[in-house]
Design a protein that fits this description.
By secondary structure, the protein is α+β, with helices and mostly antiparallel strands. The protein has helices at about 1-15, 30-35, 40-55, 65-75, 75-95, 105-115, 135, 140-155, 165-185, 195-215, 215-235, 250-270, 280-290, 310-320, 345-350, 390-395, 655-660, and strands at about 290-295, 295-300, 370-375, 380-385, 400-405, 410, 420-425, 430, 465, 470-475, 480-485, 490-495, 505-520, 525-535, 560-565, 570-575, 580, 585-590, 595-605, 615-625, 640-650. The protein has an eight-stranded antiparallel β-sheet with strand order 11-12-13-14-21-18-17-16.
Length: about 675
């Protein structure tokens, strides 16, 4: 493939003249016309407000005090807030400057570009170790790459109006900080062979900047070859099922930038170099729709958010290029929805968003009601419930779903969460995943598995013999059964999770079985998830004096199990053996054997990825017995096995009259 690529490169580089074909779509007049379309009115209002504010204030300072915080204390939020605000102001003012009647915006844009060119480093301190000079010089991280790409596109769009000194300085800084390192000195960086978002974001951002700014033929050819190798590394992290182990947020990040480069390269090469082809690319493109549950809420394993903004421009481009069927209504993210204010998403939402490719949730265009990611180890089943109440209050059926996670505990942005599951109802993940926590030094340091968002203690998985799940590739979910009925109405899967609990000395085997069905009971539809956990123990005799009973995690010892269920909704005890989580549109009832398991709920206060306080309610079922081969347990069919069987009933929210009648 490389020989044919080089031939095409040579042909098209010689034809490019003084203006790159990659810049052909970056016309200020065309962009302004697109920005003023009616469907972008809300985005434009949001963007303009941010930009007008930026015109009145100086850029925030990236001071030494802020720069040193990460190495001194592990804190990264303050520096990054100022850093991304600078990028946001630059992006907003660059859009305002599309209007030639705004000389004030153009003048401010020049000053901002000059200021960003003068930053000590374009990298984040969190990616520079202790941040010493030798770590800064010659370093390229995600945000240095994003910065050079942003500057390259802005200077291309406004080339006819910007002062020539600004243009020359941007070219100089891009050459010194990026191009010489990558394409002339051929310096090696860890992300070049990474099988996750870093290879895509770093490689593609630098590659797009090269297509726009480089004028030397041999260096440009090297940039294309380099970027394609990065893309091969990135794609190696995906299986043929197209699943993204990093979660939906990092699909947007990694595959988004992959798509942006692929489209620019295709335009540059006049269609000869097209990376958006093949069954694997089609499967990766379909990932966000397969993990969308309903109402803009997604499966959010790993470091992702339930309410993820999928760039409308990205979905529109994928619809036109790979035939992606978008069964979501058009939603163009606001500029301020992204705390990083990423230029690439903003520009392409403006350029590519196409109302015609979007459908309606639940319409006949919805291609899949469930999916088994065989390589990734995720299973998802979706359906809808109907009842007189849903027709009266919601105007339509209630969307419900179940998601189950296998995989292993050494995935990118890993959480120790084998066997984790989500119960979704009416736009809410009622039994949920905590998603990403606040990124600090500790979040990526040794011992990170003790943090709430990463530890199995923050997920819907058990504590066994006082042991949480262990980290590492050896902790792997082995799929014993995975059957998904066509239409998503029934799911049966069984996972062997024994290897995740290597610290549980008495555990011989642990399996988790899920059985999901949908049915009608009287005039009401409902879904049911039956979960069966089987804990098989190694043979040993236990004296009566050694028996204990505890519902406190800290006291849990050998031959003990504490099941945990996480929710943002506080559960109610309906009666013994019956709990209820009342969502906005639906209800989840859990039944269990109260003779064998004791229930208690804890309030877990934490902060999310954006440092916003959030409260979770962790409901636990604690097994209080001890199996002894010599006592009465010997009468059981298998005296060395503990079974926890619970049933979750999901149904539309009932009115007060119905609730009182049922109770």
């Amino acid at each position: 493939m490389e020989d044919s690529i080089q031939e095409v490169e040579h042909e098209h580089i010689n034809q490019r003249g003084n203006e790159s074909k990659a810049a052909s779509s970056l016309s200020a007049d065309k962009l302004l016309e697109k920005l003023l379309r009616p469907e972008l009115a809300t985005l434009y209002t949001d963007l303009k407000a941010y930009g007008e504010s930026a015109l009145k204030e100086p850029l925030p300072s990236l001071s030494l005090r802020l720069y040193r915080q990460f190495s001194d204390t592990g804190e990264r939020k303050a520096y990054e807030q100022a850093y991304f605000d600078r990028r946001g102001r630059l992006a907003a003012v660059a859009m305002l400057a599309l209007d030639t009647a705004r000389p004030d915006a153009l003048q401010a844009l020049e000053e901002m570009l000059w200021d960003v060119c003068g930053e000590y480093t374009w990298c984040l301190p969190a990616h520079l170790g202790t941040g010493e000079v030798n770590q800064v010089k010659g370093n390229i991280d995600l945000f240095a790459a994003e910065t050079v790409h942003m500057l390259a596109e802005i200077v291309t769009i406004h080339a006819g109006q910007l002062n020539h000194l600004v243009i020359e300085r941007i070219r100089f800084e891009a050459e010194q900080r990026i191009f010489t390192l990558l394409y002339r000195d051929l310096r090696k960086f860890h992300w070049q062979t990474a099988d996750h978002n870093w290879s895509a974001v770093c490689g593609c951002c630098c590659g797009m900047a090269a297509l726009l700014l480089l004028q030397d033929e041999s260096t440009l050819r090297e940039s294309i070859s380099h970027t394609i190798k990065c893309m091969d590394a990135f794609l190696s992290g995906y299986g043929e099922d197209g699943g993204c182990a990093e979660g939906i947020g990092y699909w947007v990040y990694g595959f988004g930038y992959f798509t942006y480069y692929a489209e620019m390269l295709r335009e540059y090469s006049e269609g000869e170099l097209d990376l958006l082809t093949g069954s694997k690319i089609n499967a990766i493109a379909a990932f966000p729709l397969r993990v969308h549950l309903s109402g803009g809420t997604f499966v959010n394993y790993s470091d992702s958010s339930e309410q993820e903004e999928i760039p409308s421009g990205l979905l529109s481009l994928l619809a036109s290029r790979v035939g992606l069927q978008v069964d979501l209504p058009l939603h163009i993210p606001l500029f301020t929805d992204d705390p990083c204010h990423r230029w690439a998403h903003l520009l392409r939402n403006v350029m590519w968003s196409n109302r015609a490719v979007f459908g309606d949730e639940g319409a006949s265009a919805q291609a899949e009601r469930g999916f088994n990611f065989r390589n990734l180890g995720w299973m998802i089943a979706k359906g809808s419930l109907d009842s007189p109440d849903t027709k009266r209050t919601n105007g339509g059926p209630l969307h419900v779903a179940i998601s189950v996670k296998g995989g292993h505990n050494d995935e990118p942005h890993n959480h120790n969460d084998l066997g984790q599951f989500i119960i979704h109802c009416g736009g809410e993940n009622i039994l949920c995943d905590p998603g990403a926590g606040l990124y600090t030094q500790a979040y990526f340091a040794p011992g990170r598995e003790r943090l709430f968002h990463i530890s199995s203690s923050g997920h819907n998985v058990p504590l066994i013999e006082g042991q949480e799940q262990s980290s590492g590739r050896q902790a792997q979910a082995h799929v014993l059964e995975a059957n998904l009925a066509e239409g998503g109405g029934e799911l049966d899967t069984t996972l062997d999770l024994t290897s995740a609990y290597s610290g549980a000395a008495s555990l011989a085997r642990y399996t988790r079985q899920f059985h999901w069905t949908m049915a009608s009971v009287g005039s009401r539809d409902r879904a049911e998830l039956r979960l069966v956990d089987r804990f098989q123990w190694k043979s040993r005799n236990v004296s009566s004096a050694e028996r204990f009973s505890s519902v406190d995690d800290s006291d849990a010892g050998w031959l003990s199990v504490v099941e945990r269920w996480m929710s943002r909704v506080q559960p109610e005890v309906v009666k013994s053996g019956n709990l209820r989580w009342q969502g906005v549109h639906g209800t989840v009832h859990m039944t269990y054997d109260a003779n064998q398991w004791q229930v208690f709920t804890e309030v877990m206060n934490t902060v999310d990825h954006d440092n916003v306080p959030v409260t979770f309610y962790r409901t636990s079922l604690s097994w209080t017995g001890v199996i002894d081969e010599t006592d009465v347990w010997i009468e059981r069919p298998n005296p060395l096995e503990t079974v926890c069987e619970v049933s979750f009933i999901i149904e539309p929210k009932m009115g007060e009259t119905e609730v009182s009648m049922r109770e």
